[in-house]
Amino acid sequence: MAVRDHEWPGYTQWYCCPLCRRLWTHQDHEMVVLDAQFALGPAHATSGVPARSCLLCLGHDTKSVTSI
What we know:
- The chain is mainly β.
- The chain has strands at residues 15-16, 23-27, 30-33, 65-67.
- 0% of the residues lie in helices and 21% in strands.
């Protein structure tokens, strides 16, 4: 997981999982999700966010899931 802003790529593609409705992205082999309860704003997908099943719903063994 990136610990500083400059470690994040300049453009991060977020996805909306159609199964669990989480907004998520990946960083290397880790999954990053927006926590709908503690986000600064509502963590809801708009029409421009592509649908893609998250790694957890696909059954992948992710070592790390970070909620921001």
